[in-house]
Amino acid sequence: AQSVTQLGSHVSVSEGALVLLRCNYSSSVPPYLFWYVQYPNQGLQLLLKYTTGATLVKGINGFEAEFKKSETSFHLTKPSAHMSDAAEYFCAVSNAGRRALTFGSGTRLQVQP
Amino acid sequence: GAGVSQTPSNKVTEKGKYVELRCDPISGHTALYWYRQSLGQGPEFLIYFQGTGAADDSGLPNDRFFAVRPEGSVSTLKIQRTERGDSAVYLCASSLLSSGRGGNTGELFFGEGSRLTVL
User: Fold this and answer.
1) What is the pLDDT of residues A4-58, one digit of tens each?
2) Residue A79 gets which letter from DSSP?
3) d(C-alpha B81, C-alpha B87), whole Å
4) Is the CB of A70 inside 8 Å of chain B's CB atoms?
5) Do B44 and A41 touch (CB under 8 A)?
6) A85, B28, B43, B45: least surrounded by Cβ within 10 Å?
7) Taking 60 as the threshold, does the pLDDT of residue B99 lie above it?
8) b/e for B83-113, b at 16 or more Cβ within 10 A?
């Protein structure tokens, strides 16, 4: 069984501030981890993913995430928020035995001017 | 088109009616997924096709829900005797199969969804 917990359904930051969106997962086997972003009235699109290898992964638009096995976490960060980052962010997990992604409940990011 | 296409974008129906939602995946993508997203929730897995066959239908909530992909391309999600609780956005995604340990290491490409409202 696998699951994802996203702490904080809403996060608000000022433009230029650090963005930190939290994701913890549960998986009985080594996980594959993903962050997706959903802009208003658009489909989900992949930000970044971890499968194997380097635990710090970089994605689009300056986002990155670090896989920490000991903490079962895959938090998403960006050093400096931009107004265009306002969106809903979803963390997801899969593994070798289950192709379908399991998503968290999402975190809505607001960026204040 | 270049992306995953879903029709209709909006569907309003009455309780008890039958509904079909269509998904046209990216050309060449062998894997196709259906998800359901309720308000304030993340996408919830329904069913996954590899080619024409349903490889995993463990997410279908009950026997009112059924999906087909007869030619390995377009898929239709069918909901019988709709209930108000079926109201949600139904998302379709497609992907190439990735090599590796057998898990889904590849990116899923999502459509914009079909919003179903059951009155």
Assistant:
1) 999 999 999 999 999 999 999 998 888 899 999 999 888 899 999 998 888 999 9
2) S
3) 13
4) no
5) no
6) B28
7) no
8) eeebbbbbbbbbbeebeeeebbbbebbbbbb
